[in-house]
Amino acid sequence: MNYHPSWAPVPFPGVICASINDAVVHGIPDRTRLADGDVVSIDCGAFVDGWCGDAAISFIVGQPDPVDAALIEATDAALERGIAAAVAGDRLGDVGHAIGDVVRRAGYGLLADHGGHGIGRAMHEAPFVWNEGRSGRGLRLRPGLVIAIEPMLIAGGTDDYVTDDDGWTLRSASGMKASHSEHTVAITEDGPLVLTAP
Questions:
Q1: Long-range contacts at 45-52 (CB < 8 A, ≥ 24 apart)
Q2: Are 24 and 163 in contact (CB under 8 A)?
Q3: Which of 66, 111, 117, 153 would suit a FRET pair with 82, their CA atoms being 20 to 30 Å apart?
Q4: Is 0.85 surpassed by the pTM of this model?
Q5: How many domains does the chain have?
Q6: What's the domain range around 113?
Q7: What are phi and psi of 184, to 5 degrees?
Q8: Among 109, 115, 77, which residue's Cα sits nearest to residue 175?
Q9: Residue 54 falls within a domain, yes or no?
Q10: pLDDT tens-digit readout, 48-105
Q11: Is residue 19 part of a domain?
Q12: How confident is the model over 93-142, as pLDDT tens digits?
């Protein structure tokens, strides 16, 4: 609560982010009643013994529309691809390429100018983790680096968004539904280690 990164106009007034339908990320929880078929993304972070973790999941309320279910499946698949590419010795561009390739081939948009981040003693640290990239480019991944990988997909193939008056909630400019998945991942000699796995 009251988390206030430098890029935000005001502190975040909630404990979790709850984004519904066309809200891609950073939705502020309120008294909105969920309806059958709503796509909901829950994003939350926690501090434990001075260290941070960050994770997100998307799901459908009630009876799922197959189109929305496919959107969430594509988001989860992109996250898995990104995690699999987070290998010591490779580069951040390999992670972005793995995510972006599967997303674009499936015909979805990616929230413009947003992606994952380094994480450790603070929620948002360097480096920025793009959801698209070129293989072999960017920061070399070294054991000990911890990153939050978080694809944010928009149905319909658009990347554009608008910001609500609350200064936090980002919505698809097209009004199309969105989905968000995230894990905190440590780079190790033995491969990526998902620190926020259930």
A1: 45/123, 50/121, 51/120, 51/121, 52/119, 52/120, 52/121, 52/122, 52/123, 52/184
A2: no
A3: 66
A4: yes
A5: 1
A6: 65-194
A7: -95, 125
A8: 109
A9: no
A10: 999 999 999 999 999 999 999 999 999 999 999 999 999 999 999 999 999 999 999 9
A11: no
A12: 999 999 999 999 999 999 999 999 999 999 999 999 999 999 999 999 99
